[in-house]
Design goal:
The chain is an alpha/beta fold. It contains 17 helices and 9 strands. α7 (142-150) crosses α8 (152-164), α9 (168-195) packs parallel to α11 and α13 packs parallel to α15 (302-316).
């Protein structure tokens, strides 16, 4: 099997030849290829070349056209500040008052913000790989994108106040905002599929249980994540592509709901034990994860990474619907030998030998 076939088999519930491996190597790919991150995140050509070079070095099964979180928000008009060899940061929230939500319009991913940068990178990678491996698109989740536009503190405060006291006008405005961000993510995801992505995603980390209560997640994030996957899964089947949900943090209390969103892949953070995740989700979706990006990949040794990777595969259990990954984005300064150790363990773990 090549990498694309291996990933397809795992997500479809078939048996791949070995454990697929897909660490989230966005800015790490830039660093490995020697491309400054501020140039990487503003050039589709450089992003594609860097990711392709990183793939040649590491031979992971999935390449990701990813750098930062603001490319869709910029399409709405959010202003960002760029930093030397770093990712952009927001200068200020785009809207200050809830009534300003009415002035927002869904941006065109082919023209607005830096979405065209990511679409170009996906298109170039799709052509360069020629079916050998899979390209994963970025995708800021509806809840997280709403926080970018209104400002994270204001957004979460407004939601918290609604938990204490009903306010119909605020509830309507925030619901409108989340419907808008969901629509924007759907439009961007479809453009990514057109460009050649085989995995599209909602990366909704502001909806983490480390940030909001499970009750708030079920009220304010889950319905919009479901709307996203309901809208894109048909297109995924048309393109022989797959949908993914990632939420950072210890989401043990909402893990079952994450699997119920309709996502074909649930990527979990290192804060959740894989054996618990496997028991909770079962074979309803493909599970991806979850080596700790900091303490294991960045700060560990090749030997400790090998041990952690073997433990992750063991914890995932006797399931072919599993992809070994990082719990979140791989830090740019992670030692190359650590990444190679992780990928080598996956390549050496053959399913036939696991079932002997």
């Amino acid at each position: 099997m090549n990498s694309a076939q291996r990933i397809e088999a795992a997500i479809s519930g078939e048996q791949p030849d070995c454990v697929p491996v897909a660490p989230y190597m966005g800015n790490y790919g830039a660093r490995l290829a020697g491309v400054p991150i501020d140039r990487y995140c503003t050039s589709g050509k450089l992003m594609a070349e860097a990711q392709y070079r990183a793939w040649q070095i590491c031979t992971q099964d999935v390449l990701v056209a990813q750098s930062d979180n603001y490319y869709i928000a910029e399409g709405f008009g959010l202003q960002v500040e760029h930093h030397t060899d770093g990712t952009p940061t927001a200068r200020a929230p785009l809207i200050e008052n809830l009534q300003d939500i009415l002035s927002l319009r869904v941006p065109d991913p082919r023209k607005d913000g830096r979405m065209p940068v990511y679409l170009e990178a996906i298109d170039r990678l799709h052509g360069m790989l020629d079916g050998q491996a899979i390209v994963r698109a970025p995708g800021t989740g509806p809840f997280s994108l709403a926080g970018h536009l209104l400002g994270t503190q204001v957004f979460l405060t407004r939601l918290g106040l609604l938990e204490l006291e009903a306010d119909e006008k605020s509830e309507i405005a925030l619901t409108d905002l989340l419907q808008l961000t969901t629509h924007a993510l759907i439009v961007f995801a479809r453009a990514c599929l057109d460009a050649g992505a085989r995995i599209i995603q909602a990366g909704d980390s502001l909806a983490s249980s480390d940030m909001i209560s499970p009750g708030m997640y079920r009220r304010w994030a889950l319905p919009f994540e479901r709307s996203f996957f309901d809208a894109v899964n048909g297109a995924c089947r048309e393109y022989n592509a797959f949908s993914l949900l990632h939420i950072c943090g210890d989401n043990s209390r909402i893990l079952a709901e994450m699997a119920d969103t309709g996502a074909m892949i649930v990527e979990i953070d290192s804060k959740i034990r894989l054996d618990f995740a496997s028991r909770t989700i079962g074979d309803r979706v493909c599970l991806m994860g979850n080596l700790d990006p900091t303490t294991v990949l960045l700060q560990g040794s090749a030997d400790s990474v090998e041990k952690a990777a073997r433990q992750a595969i063991e914890d995932a259990g006797e399931r072919s619907v599993f992809i070994l990954g990082s719990g979140c984005e791989v830090p740019p300064d992670t030692p190359l030998q650590n990444m190679k150790s992780m990928i080598r363990v996956a390549r050496q773990t053959r399913y036939a030998s696991r079932h002997d």
